[in-house]
Write a structure and sequence with these properties.
This protein has one domain (2-217): Rossmann fold (3-Layer(aba) Sandwich), CATH 3.40.50. α4 (108-118) crosses α7. The protein has helices spanning 29-42, 57-68, 73-97, 108-118, 123-134, 153-161, 174-190, 204-217; strands at 3-4, 17-23, 47-51, 101-105, 135-136, 139-140, 145-150, 195-199. β5 (135-136) and β6 (139-140) form a beta hairpin. It is an alpha/beta fold. The structure holds thymidine-5'-diphosphate (TYD).
Length: 220
């Protein structure tokens, strides 16, 4: 799923940006990831669009297990971070090193929101795993920008009704997603400079305009 895209010529020196897209299932991230990718491809940048769990052959196999096989919460958290480690080493760090823009459909905030707040898994232990997995020579690797698509759990549930067969997370009830939303809120309050909250209840064009404003504010 990680594809170093487009035939357009790349600029000699890239910009090296890491952007993650977050939100509960049904919040509508995918459409907007595509739009942001096209925006930067048109500008001549190399865009790597990828996802978590996943993004490498090994991590995609781990994704299959995490999304479809029953397991205890610690196993789940360890597999997700194992997938993340492989993804960082094989795809994200090399892409940033050559100046690409990395657009990642979910990253560690999802683990805090889903495993931590949703499932009630120990947040302190998640923070330890985060440090182990994301610590690099220049500090703890985090996205430069996280677009959080915020939508009430009841509205997202309505949108998911039409979706394909649900995975282990999509099958959860509204109370679970309410906790996941609180998890995203906590992460965004802890790091307001990294997070931009996007009101996903609006029509697609209005959501796209919000994203455009966030990128423009950063001079991107
Ligand atoms: P999602 O990103 O919504 O992909 P799709 O659009 O193909 O359904 O699905 C991934 C699921 O994985 C989602 O329900 C959230 C879950 N997830 C976690 O529970 N923890 C994590 O750390 C990550 C990255 C994802």
């Amino acid at each position: 799923m990680s594809d170093a895209t487009n035939g357009a010529p790349h600029r000699a020196s890239g910009v090296s940006r890491f952007v993650s897209f977050e939100g509960i299932d049904g919040a509508g991230k995918s459409t907007h990831i595509d739009a942001v990718a096209q925006r930067w491809q048109r500008a001549g940048l190399e865009v790597v669009r990828t996802r978590e769990p996943g993004g490498t052959p090994l991590a995609e196999r781990l994704r299959e297990m995490v999304l479809h096989e029953p397991m205890d919460p610690l196993t789940e958290a360890l597999l997700i971070f194992a997938a993340r480690r492989d993804h960082l080493q094989q795809v994200i760090e090399p892409a940033l090193a050559r100046g690409a823009v990395v657009l990642c459909d979910r990253f560690t905030d999802a683990t805090f929101a889903y495993q931590g707040h949703g499932r009630g898994f120990d947040l302190g232990l998640l923070a330890v795993l985060e440090r182990w997995v994301q610590q690099g020579p220049s500090g703890l690797r985090q996205p430069d920008l996280t677009l959080w698509f915020d939508l009430p759990a009841a509205v997202a549930a309505q949108r998911l009704v039409q979706a394909r067969a649900p995975d282990r997370f999509e099958r959860q009830d509204e109370a679970f997603f309410q906790r996941v939303i609180e998890g995203y809120r906590a992460r965004s309050e802890a790091e307001p400079a990294r997070f931009a909250r996007i009101d996903s209840s609006q029509p697609v064009e209005a959501v796209a305009a919000q994203i455009e404003r966030v990128l423009a504010q950063r001079g991107w």
